[in-house]
C-alpha cells in the first residue's frame, strides 16, 4: 500500500540546513496498523506530513497504492489527499461552526457528493463511532474523546486507502485514549490501513507493528503482539 | 464558472456566512451604508432636479423681459436722461429681425413697478389690484390656468376691444361670495364695468403674475387709458435650443437702434433673463447630481474596501479552518472561489438591502415634502445608476475578495494546521 525508498528531507533554517529524514526505507501492506514512534525531533511528524502529501520529499520515492507521489501541484495533491487519505489530528481540527454531521460530511463535499447522500453517509459513519445522536451538536458541545471520534468519522467518511493519525490521543486522558484506540483497532479489523504517530508506549503497543524513528533514521521496525484496548474501556 | 451554479457551493457559502453572524453583519454594514448613501443622495438630487423642473414648468424656460428706462449717454443729438418708451411697432421689428424669437408678447400694466393699483368694485366690496393689458399669445410664455367655465383673453376680444376681464384667485375671494360664480358677472374697474370671463389659478412654483392680478385685452386697455402704441414691457420667449443670452443682446441692440440710443448705453433698456437664471439653477442641480454620484461611489468604494479588510482578518482567523479544508481535499481553486464568492455575495446582499433602505428613505422624504413649496418632486434613482452601482459592487467585491483569497491559498496547508 505504501512504499518508501531512500527518503530524504531537510529544512533550511537560515543558513543552516537541517537534515530531518536521512534515507528511510519501509513499506506498509494493506490492512496493517502501524505505530510510528520517536521522541520529538525524531522526524516522525515530518514523515507523516510527507505521507499525507502536506509536504514534499527532497529525495527518494513514495508510492501510494501503486501511484507514484511526485511533483504534485497543490490541486493534484488536494485531489489525492481527498481520494487516498484520511487525517486525524492531535487537536481534532474540527470546524467549529459546523455541526458534527457537517464536519463529517465535509470531505464528501470536496468529492462532489450530493448533499442528501453526503448527510446519509455522514450519519452512517457517526453511527459507527457511536455518536449518531450527537449529529447536530457543534464541536464545542462535545468532549475531547467525542471530538476525536467525530474527527475519525470524518477521516473515514471519504473511504480513504490509508488513515493517518498524528498523535490521535495526545490531547486526551488515558481512558478516552483507550476508547479512541479501541475505535481505531475496530476500523483496522475491517481491513483498513492505519498509520499512527505517537510517543506513548502503551498506545504504540495497541498497534500491530512499531516503527521506531530516531534522528531521522529507522532504528527499529518490529511486529508486536497487539494489546486490545477494549479491556481497558 | 460552472461552480457559480452549483447548489453545493452555495450551501457551503451560506453555511460559512450564516454561522459567523457577527462577522457577516459587520461586513455587510459597510457596503450597506455606502449604497444607502449613494441611493439617498442621488435620489435626493434627482428629486431636487425634478422639483426645479416642476417649478419652472409653468413658464417658458427660454424667456426674458425687456423694458425701457432712460438713456445714460447723449447720442444722436439727444441729451442724456431721456425717458424711453417701448412701442407696439417694436414687436414686429424684433420678430422680423431676431429669428430666434418664438413668441413675443407686449404688455401694458398698471399697479406694478410703483404705479398705483386699480381700484375695483363689486357691489359692496372693493379692492385695489394690478391691471394688465395683454395679448392671447402671452399664455404661450407663461401658462395661465383658468378655472373651469372660464377662459383667457382671445383674439376676438382684442379685435373688438371687448370689456372683458380675467381675475386672479385673490380678487375672486375678496370681491365675490364663496359659492358665487364670478364668470359672466360684472365688476367695476376704475370707472368702467367689465364682464368677468375667467379666474386664473395661481401656478405652483415660478409665476410671473400674482393672484391679485387682472387681465384685460391690450386693445381695450389702450382705448381706456389712452396709451396709444405704448408698451409697458415685452415678454419674449426664444426657441428651446438657442442661446438666450445672445438673443437678449440682439433684442437690446435692435431696440437701441429703433429708439436712437447709443449702442454703448447699457442702462437704456432693462431686462430680466429667466433663461439665464434658470440655467444657473439647473447647473446647480446638475452639479448636485454629479457630486452625489461621486460621493456615493466613493462611499461604496470605502464599504467594499471594508469588506475586503474584514475578510482579510477573517482569513487569518480562519487559517486553520482553511488548512483543514485543504487537508480534507479542497483544491486551492475551491478555497479561492469560496472566499471570493463570500465576498461577492456579502457585497451584493448588502447592496440590495442598501438599495431597498435608500428607496424607503426617498419615499419617506417624498411623502413629507409633498404639497410644500420645497422644490422636491418624485425623487428617483435611474435604473442604470442602480445597476451601475451593483456592477461596480460585484467587480470590486471580486477584486477585493481576491486579496484574502490569494492569501488563504498562499498558506501551505501544513503551516495552516500547525498554527495554534
UniProtKB/TrEMBL annotation, chain A:
Q: What SUPFAM superfamilies does this protein's entry cite?
A: P-loop containing nucleoside triphosphate hydrolases
Q: Which InterPro entries match?
A: AAA+_ATPase, ABC_transporter-like_ATP-bd, ABC_transporter-like_CS, MacB-like_ATP-bd, P-loop_NTPase
Query: Where would I find the ABC transporter domain in this sequence?
Result: 2-233
State the GO CC annotations: membrane protein complex
Key words of the record:
ATP-binding, Nucleotide-binding, Transport
Instruction: Write out the GO MF terms.
Output: ATP binding; ATP hydrolysis activity; transmembrane transporter activity
Where are the annotated coiled coils located? none
Q: Does the keyword 4Fe-4S apply?
A: no
Member of which family?
Belongs to the ABC transporter superfamily.
The entry's protein name is ABC transporter domain-containing protein
Organism name:
marine sediment metagenome
TrEMBL record, chain B:
Span of domain MacB-like periplasmic core: 24-253
Molecular-function annotations in GO: transmembrane transporter activity
List the subcellular locations. Answer: Cell membrane
Report the membrane topology from the UniProt record: Multi-pass membrane protein
Keyword flag Magnesium: no
**Keywords attached to this entry:** Cell membrane, Membrane, Transmembrane, Transmembrane helix
Task: Tell me the ranges covered by the ABC3 transporter permease C-terminal domain, including all copies.
Answer: 294-412
Q: Report what the protein is called.
A: ABC3 transporter permease protein domain-containing protein
Question: What's the source species for this entry?
Answer: marine sediment metagenome
Amino acid at each position: 500500500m505504501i512504499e518508501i525508498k531512500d527518503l530524504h528531507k531537510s529544512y533550511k533554517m537560515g543558513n543552516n540546513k537541517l537534515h530531518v529524514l536521512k534515507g528511510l526505507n519501509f513499506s506498509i501492506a494493506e490492512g496493517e496498523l502501524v505505530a510510528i514512534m520517536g521522541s520529538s525531533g525524531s522526524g516522525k511528524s515530518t514523515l507523516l506530513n510527507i505521507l499525507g502529501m502536506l509536504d514534499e520529499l527532497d529525495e527518494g520515492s513514495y508510492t501510494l497504492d501503486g501511484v507514484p507521489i511526485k511533483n504534485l501541484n497543490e490541486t493534484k495533491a488536494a485531489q489525492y489527499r481527498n481520494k487516498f487519505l484520511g487525517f486525524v489530528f492531535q487537536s481534532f481540527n474540527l470546524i467549529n461552526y459546523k455541526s458534527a454531521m457537517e464536519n463529517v460530511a465535509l470531505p464528501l463535499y470536496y468529492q462532489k457528493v450530493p448533499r442528501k447522500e453526503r448527510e446519509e453517509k455522514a450519519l452512517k459513519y457517526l453511527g459507527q463511532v457511536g455518536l449518531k445522536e450527537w449529529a447536530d451538536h457543534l464541536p464545542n458541545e462535545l468532549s475531547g474523546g467525542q471530538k476525536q471520534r467525530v474527527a475519525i468519522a470524518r477521516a473515514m467518511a471519504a473511504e480513504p486507502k490509508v488513515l493517518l493519525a498524528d498523535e490521535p490521543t495526545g490531547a486526551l486522558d488515558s481512558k478516552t485514549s483507550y476508547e479512541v484506540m479501541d475505535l481505531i483497532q475496530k476500523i483496522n479489523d475491517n481491513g483498513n490501513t492505519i498509520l499512527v504517530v505517537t510517543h506513548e508506549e502503551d498506545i504504540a503497543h495497541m498497534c500491530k507493528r512499531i516503527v521506531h524513528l530516531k534522528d531521522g533514521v529507522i532504528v527499529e521496525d518490529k511486529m508486536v503482539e497487539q494489546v486490545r484496548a477494549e479491556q481497558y474501556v | 464558472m460552472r461552480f457559480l451554479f452549483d447548489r453545493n457551493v452555495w450551501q457551503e457559502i451560506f453555511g460559512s456566512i450564516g454561522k459567523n453572524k457577527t462577522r457577516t453583519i459587520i461586513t455587510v454594514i459597510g457596503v450597506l451604508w455606502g449604497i444607502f448613501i449613494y441611493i439617498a443622495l442621488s435620489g435626493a438630487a434627482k428629486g431636487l432636479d425634478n422639483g426645479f423642473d416642476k417649478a419652472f414648468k409653468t413658464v417658458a424656460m427660454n424667456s426674458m423681459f425687456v423694458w425701457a428706462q432712460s438713456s445714460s449717454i447723449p447720442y444722436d443729438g439727444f441729451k442724456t436722461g431721456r425717458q424711453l418708451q417701448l412701442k407696439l411697432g417694436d414687436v414686429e421689428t424684433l420678430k422680423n429681425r431676431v429669428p430666434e424669437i418664438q413668441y413675443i408678447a407686449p404688455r401694458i400694466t398698471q399697479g406694478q413697478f410703483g404705479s398705483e393699483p386699480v381700484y375695483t368694485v363689486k357691489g359692496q366690496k372693493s379692492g385695489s389690484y394690478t391691471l394688465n393689458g395683454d395679448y392671447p399669445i402671452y399664455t404661450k410664455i407663461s401658462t395661465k390656468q383658468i378655472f373651469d367655465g372660464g377662459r383667457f383673453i382671445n383674439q376676438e376680444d382684442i379685435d373688438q376691444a371687448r370689456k372683458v376681464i380675467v381675475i386672479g384667485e385673490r380678487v375672486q375671494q375678496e370681491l365675490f361670495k364663496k359659492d358665487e360664480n364670478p364668470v359672466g358677472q360684472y365688476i367695476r374697474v376704475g370707472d368702467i364695468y367689465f364682464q368677468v370671463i375667467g379666474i386664473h389659478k395661481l401656478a405652483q412654483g415660478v409665476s410671473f403674475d400674482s393672484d391679485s392680478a387682472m387681465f384685460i385685452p391690450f386693445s381695450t386697455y389702450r382705448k381706456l387709458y389712452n396709451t396709444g402704441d405704448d408698451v409697458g414691457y415685452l415678454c419674449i420667449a426664444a426657441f428651446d435650443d438657442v442661446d438666450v443670452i445672445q438673443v437678449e443682446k440682439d433684442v437690446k441692440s435692435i431696440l437701441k437702434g429703433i429708439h436712437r440710443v447709443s449702442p454703448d448705453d447699457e442702462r437704456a433698456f432693462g431686462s430680466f433673463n429667466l433663461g439665464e437664471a434658470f440655467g444657473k439653477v439647473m447647473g446647480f442641480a446638475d452639479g448636485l447630481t454629479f457630486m452625489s454620484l461621486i460621493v456615493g461611489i466613493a462611499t461604496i468604494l470605502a464599504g467594499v474596501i471594508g469588506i475586503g479588510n474584514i475578510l482579510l482578518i477573517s482569513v487569518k482567523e480562519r487559517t486553520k479552518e482553511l488548512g483543514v479544508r485543504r487537508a480534507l481535499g479542497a483544491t486551492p481553486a475551491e478555497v479561492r472561489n469560496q472566499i471570493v464568492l463570500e465576498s461577492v455575495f456579502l457585497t451584493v446582499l448588502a447592496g440590495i438591502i442598501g438599495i431597498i433602505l435608500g428607496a424607503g428613505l426617498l419615499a419617506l422624504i417624498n411623502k413629507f415634502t409633498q404639497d410644500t413649496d420645497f422644490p422636491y418632486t418624485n425623487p428617483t434613482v435611474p435604473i442604470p445608476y442602480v445597476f451601475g452601482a451593483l456592477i461596480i459592487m460585484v467587480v470590486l467585491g471580486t477584486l477585493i475578495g481576491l486579496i484574502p483569497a490569494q492569501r488563504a491559498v498562499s498558506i501551505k496547508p501544513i503551516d495552516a494546521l500547525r498554527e495554534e
